[in-house]
Amino acid sequence: MLSEKTMQIVKSTAPVLKEKGTEITSCFYKRMFNAHPELKNIFNMSRQQTGGQPKALAYTVLQAAENIDRLEALLPVVTQIGHKHKSLNVKPEHYPIVGHHLLEAIEIVLGDAATEEILQAWAEAYEEIARVFIEIEKQMYDEDKKQDGNWEGFKPFVVLDKRVESETITSFYLKPADGTDLPPFSPGQYVSVRIKIPGEQYFLTRQYSLSDAWNKDYYRISVKLEAEEGKPKGRVSSYLHEAMEVGASLEVSAPAGDFALSEQTDQPVYFISAGSGITPVMSMVKTLAAKENDRQITFIHAAKSEKHHAFKEEVEKLIGEKQEGRLLFIYSQASGEPSDHVINGRLNDDILKTAVKNTDAAFYICGPLSFMKSVIEGLQNLGVPMENIRYESFASSLDMQIAN
């Protein structure tokens, strides 16, 4: 338990952390990777290069400083990060390494302002924060152990099938190399995929949403080729698209993630996605479509064009067979003639107002940051309570908060 004095000292550092947080975390990562290059097998080095990871960690550190006297307020964020840590096989022994280099970075960046008293207070605070993370992650690991067929860390899989879903998205059907049955997962969760690419010194690991309802034989992930104009192709996504063929091997973590469908209700549900944000939503809608109930489903998806729209026919068949199902596709680049469920344009407040018939429904949203922020704001303007809205962006909820 932290003393009142320690908490006050840590809280007093919040202003300087707000100003110099990213500088501190950038210094931290550089020094940690120099001392422990093996940790590059865990971290997404692309997010290091773009600055996304140092920025997200800086925000987490700032939130910890501001809430050190009530860490329970950070529980949703800690849980989300804990799921990601579990999928990457982060263990208790990693936390002292992080703590050592984080304190070292604080001392370097703050210079004389980092007094012995401040450093000692942060050492104590970090130990308490690490304890919270370790306990939550232990609960997650323990829950996995209770489930038949689950595993810890990474397990060898083979590519059972590979299917092009759109101009930019390809699905991979992954089967355990040992032929064992796969454990159930919550619709909306993801797995970490770890591969060793020729020419790369370290493993590359990425998280991909499971895009199918559970079955015991295979998991399906659907990967967008990261290839924005003027930027280099995503190292992992391009390798999967261009080099990973049927029969190839890779490693996969057990499913994780807290963006998950609540199945124990008959509450009407809206799925609102954009681009490759359709992937976790597909797992949810396929799970619901397989159930024999009258739960009302509204499926809204925005894409650049019809050729960029993955799972179009699959969704039309799924929702079309549901008496209580409604569909709406929105293309920012005109793709043929509009129909009863196809609109050319962009998802905006007017379209939301027309499409949303029930503000007491459950809403599941996934897509790019700007899309997410716009949709959530639009739903709130319609009177949808925030507790009815669940979201998953390809950044993180931390990034969502940073952008606010």
From TrEMBL:
Report the residue ranges that make up the FAD-binding FR-type domain in this protein.
152-262
Lineage, top-rank taxon, reads Bacteria
- CDD domains this protein is in? flavohem_like_fad_nad_binding, Yhb1-globin-like
**MF terms (GO), sorted A to Z:** FAD binding; heme binding; metal ion binding; nitric oxide dioxygenase NAD(P)H activity; oxygen binding; oxygen carrier activity
Keyword tRNA processing attached: no
InterPro entries xrefs: Cbr1-like_FAD-bd_dom, FAD-bd_FR_type, Flavoprot_Pyr_Nucl_cyt_Rdtase, FNR_nucleotide-bd, Globin, Globin-like_sf, Globin/Proto, OxRdtase_FAD/NAD-bd
Q: What class of enzyme is it?
A: oxidoreductase
BP terms from Gene Ontology? cellular response to nitrosative stress; nitric oxide catabolic process
What NCBIfam families does UniProt report for this protein, alphabetically? PRK13289.1
Protein name, please? Answer: Flavohemoprotein
